[in-house]
Amino acid sequence: MMRRAVRAGLRVVSVVAFLAVLPGCSGADRGSGDGERPATDAARSGDGATSGSGDGATSGSGNGVPRLTPATTLDQPVDAASREGDAAVYVVERVGRIVRLVGPAWAPEPGPPALDVSDLVSAGGERGLLGLAFSLDGTTAFVNYTGRDGDTVVASLAVGADGRLDRVTLRTLLTVAQPYRNHNAGDLVVGSDGALYVPTGDGGSGGDPERLALDPRSPLGKVLRVDPATGAVREIARGLRNPWRVDLYDGDLWLADVGQDEWEEVSVLRDLVGSAARVGAGEAPQSFGWSAWEGPARYHDDEPADGHVAPVHAYRHGDDGCSISGGAVAPATLVSGDAPEDGTGAPSRLAGRFVFGDYCSGRIWSLDPARPEAGARLELDGVDELVAIVRAGGALWVLSLGGAVARLA
After folding, report:
1. What gap in Å lies between CA 92 and CA 113, rounded to an integer?
2. Which of 214, 252, 363, 396 could cross-link with 408 by S-S, CB 3.0 to 4.6 Å?
3. Number of C-alpha atoms within 13 angstroms, CB side, residue 22?
4. Residue 11 belongs to what H/E stretch?
């Protein structure tokens, strides 16, 4: 295999970053083509059994089964978010745009998109404009995208009274050098402390060839806390492969981490803000184990086996899929297709459950956050190009890389 020098580094605008760069060598880059699914190396298939077919499994038919209500079609939607004081839902298109959906029909707002940074974004494969979050008061937007040079960029923008994101105010908070074209992760959340929390992929290729995910000198394969005011960065968790979509609910950060050869994982960073504070006081960051472990199985024998937190749920590659698409905890009520025009929701059998899917199989499951060991319940099957399940505007949104935007209730 070809060997080349790479640097997996972190650049922070304002203060000097605490993370050092790590040079190394790599194998072939397996994430270089346009049109790849955005959460893993290449399309895979297998015939392994799943550990995710626990109590209450259903084939997606019969009474009380959730249903999808189509809303609109966009260009490669990959994320959605809502903000304080605004009834609209903001949907991220991987190509570099953010579109506002307005109810009750949840159609795109007339006129130009809320943001267009397509000229700044390298889109295709696992790259693009990948994530959006808003400050607690809704006046600032945070975006996560792949820059033209292939690096991950996290930036802030002011949000106007009309809901448009003011590109003139765009300010880079964090840049993470990417040694390969895949495993860009891309999501981000805002904690109750107002800080920005950014999960990162392990740098790409396959199998963490440079062992970056557990290396404290690298920002890759981590959860990073970023202070939006100062740009100060702190690692608060490590040992992640490609946490494509995450969800902050009731103080806990749910991470859907795309697997390598055999296992897909759901992990949880309990008490996110408290964990960050404890790390700031000298406690070691929590480890999720990659690449010493993949799910419940040992992966690299040259990485330490002890001291990691196992996933709360894992399923084996096979009929159930090969690339977890991420998910979100459903609110107590969900805005569905027959909801009143005031946007209020109706009770749902998904209420309070973590709902996630798989890109390869198109299946959607749910877990009880209080009893994840009970296993996952199959809710729906055959969703085309299922790339994300996110919570925004009182609804669960199911996004298809092919363009479909639908609500799940």
Report:
1. 10
2. 396
3. 23
4. strand 10-12
